[in-house]
Design goal:
By secondary structure, the chain is an all-alpha fold. The protein has 2 domains: 71 residues; 153 residues, Lysozyme (Orthogonal Bundle), CATH 1.10.530.10. The protein contains 10 helices and 2 strands. The protein has a two-stranded antiparallel ribbon with strand order 1-2. Helix 5 packs across helix 6 and helix 6 crosses helix 9. The longest helix is centred in the N-terminal third of the chain and has 47 residues. The protein is elongated, with a radius of gyration of 33 Å. The relative contact order is 0.06.
Amino acid sequence: MSISIFSRLKRGLRTFAMDVAQGFFAISHNGLAVVGLSIFFFVVALTVRPDLRVVTEAKVMSWLQERQYDELGIATDADAVDRATATDPRDLPKQQANLAYWLSKKYRVAPEPLSALVAEAYDVGPSNQLEPTLILAVMAVESGFNPFAQSNVGAQGLMQVMTKVHEQKYVGFGGSLAAFDPVANVRVGVNVLKECITRAGGTEGGLKLYVGAGNTKDDQGYASKVMAENARLQQVAKGVKVPIAPPPATAAEAATARLESLWEKAQRLTPFGKEDPEDPR
């Protein structure tokens, strides 16, 4: 009798456990199905309604930025990389990469922004009947590749364009403040340089007009500097090993260069056993 009761109780418990398990599976399965259907219809809605997709992306990015700020304490901006004028030199054709690395060493500018400028010169040069290396040479002599440079007479940016004189040329870029945007400055500068060369009937005369020395005999060596740099850059593009600094003309210049090199190396040295307090690494 007791054995029979125990057997019925055992079967009852087993049946109850199986019912609970099946119920849990059914609820879980239905719940996952509902979630899956919800995601499906949400994706369809985003596809049909681009405005919803834009709003959703903005909210997701805002949430991610808030999470990053909580973790890092830095207000992030996902669009910053799109505003940066930079390109990986490894993505450039061989000639352009040669120029980017050489100019980076000579002018102590990072190769990534220089790569973008080299690519831009090779893009706008042919369409304006100008050698890309000539455009880069003008940038080198004018500003040393400093996009924020300004002269005493108001020439601004990479190619030191007189912004007030050529203000109309910046209208299509949003206004005269675009003089400090590297790409905008290069495009306006190339346009001005082309006009100068056309008026002068030659490159050297055009360079004198460009620097404002068209009506004088002495351009303080500007045209010859640009032409010499252009010649060096053409050799660099071909893969020729060109010295970063031109050889000294006199023994005194050579001695001065050696002293400057030694002084620069001495400044980089840290006393043995001491750490540089200004180095944050």
